Amino acid sequence: MGDLTRAERMLRACRGESVDRPPVWLMRQAGRYLPEYRAVRAGVDFLGMCRDVDRAVEVSLQPLELVGTEAVILFSDIFVPVVGLGVDVDFAPGPVLAKPVRTAADVERLVLRDPREAVPYVFEILGRLRAALDPQSVPLIGFAGAPFTLATYLVRGRGDPDRKYPELRQMMAETPEVARELLARLAEMTIAYLNAQIDAGAQVVQLFDSWCGILTEAEYREWVLPVTRTIVAGVDRSRAPLILFASDAPHLVSAMLETGPDVLSVGASVDLAEAVRLAGGRASLQGNLDPADLARPRDEIFARVAEMAAQVAAARGWIVNLGHGCTPETPVAGVRAFTDAVRALGA
C-alpha cells in the first residue's frame, strides 16, 4: 500500500478501508501516569487545566513523543460542555454538582447555547492542536460524553462508587417524561458540541457512554438507542468518523451497533472475536486491552497484542486501544511496549 501517514491510517481504519496495519492510541493517554503530565498540572485544579489553553495543548501532545501513540485526543472532560449549560459543578476529582437535576424545572434551567460561546477554550485548544499536528500528519480526536452517562452524574449530583446510579433509574421509572426530556436536551447539546469540534479541526470524534452498561439490553433499547441514533445521524460524519464507546457492556454490543457508529469501541470484558462476528461489515472495532495488562512484561504485552490481532482478523477495520483508560498506576514502559507491539504488526 505504500507508506500511509498516521492520519490516513486512522481514517481508513475507521471507515473500513484497507490499511498496512492498525493504528494505535490510548484512552487517557495524557494523564497522571506520566511524570511530565503531573509537572504541567502542578498547582492547577482539573477544570482550570481544561480551560488553560497552553497547558491543555501541551499535555495533549505529550504522548506522541513519550509513549509513541499515533493519534492525539483533546485534553478535556466529558462534563466540560455541561458547564456551558449553566450547571454549577466542581471536580473532586470527578464532577460534583451544587444542585442535582431531578425535576422538570431543573431540566428547563439547562440552557442550550452555542458551544463556541459557552466553552470557547475547547475550540481554541483544538485549533492549536490541529495546527501542530498537520505537519506531522497525526490525526486529532475530539470527544463528548453520551447523554445517558452525563445524566447519571447530573441526576445523582456526583459519581457513584458502586456504579449503579439508582437516582437516574428512579427518575426513568417514576417521571419518565422528565428523563426523556433530559436525554433529549443533552443529545441536542452533544450534536452541536461535536460538530463544533469538527469545525475546529477534529478529524475523528468519540462518544463516551461509559455507564450505559448498567442497563439491561431492553432498557438500553428503550432509553439509549434512540438518543444515540439521533446523535450519530446529527454529527457530520462525512468529515469525521464517529467512535461509540462503552466500558463494560458485553451484553449491549448488538444494540450499540444498531445505533450506526463508524467504529464501536469495546471494553475489556467483550470477546473481540464475537464482536467481529456481530459487527460484520457494519462498523470497525476499537479496543480492547485490559489496562491492567500494561503492567505485564514487554514480551507478554507483545503476545497479547498479537492474540488480539488474530481475533480481529476478519474485522472491517480495527483501531488498537484499551478497554478503558490508562490508570494513574499504569507503567510508562508498558504503554511504550503496547504501541511498539502494534507497530510490529506491520513488520
Plain-language structure description:
Helix 14 (253-257) links the parallel strand 6 and strand 7 (263-266). The protein is 48% helix and 11% strand. The model has no long low-confidence stretch (mean pLDDT 95). It has a seven-stranded parallel beta sheet with strand order 1-4-5-6-7-8-9, with helices on both faces. The protein has one domain (6-88, 101-146, 169-344): TIM Barrel. By secondary structure, it is an alpha/beta fold. The chain starts with 5 loop residues before the first helix and ends with a helix.
**Low-confidence sequence ranges:** none
The helix count comes to: 17
Number of strands: 9
**What general outline do the C-alpha atoms trace?**
globular
Distance between the termini: 13 Å
Q: Order of strands across the biggest sheet? A: 1-4-5-6-7-8-9
Give the SSE map.
Blueprint: H1 6-15, H2 35-41, H3 46-51, H4 53-66, E1 72-73, H5 80-83, E2 89-91, E3 95-97, H6 104-108, H7 115-118, H8 120-133, E4 140-145, H9 147-156, H10 166-174, H11 176-200, E5 204-208, H12 217-223, H13 225-234, E6 242-246, H14 253-257, E7 263-266, H15 272-279, E8 284-289, H16 298-311, E9 318-322, H17 332-344
Parallel strand pairs: 1-4, 4-5, 5-6, 6-7, 7-8, 8-9
Antiparallel strand pairs: 2-3
Helix pairs in contact: 2-4, 4-8, 9-10, 9-11, 10-11, 11-13, 16-17
Write a concise synopsis of the structure shown.
This protein has 347 residues and is an alpha/beta fold. It has helices spanning 6-15, 35-41, 46-51, 53-66, 80-83, 104-108, 115-118, 120-133, 147-156, 166-174, 176-200, 217-223, 225-234, 253-257, 272-279, 298-311, 332-344; strands spanning 72-73, 89-91, 95-97, 140-145, 204-208, 242-246, 263-266, 284-289, 318-322.
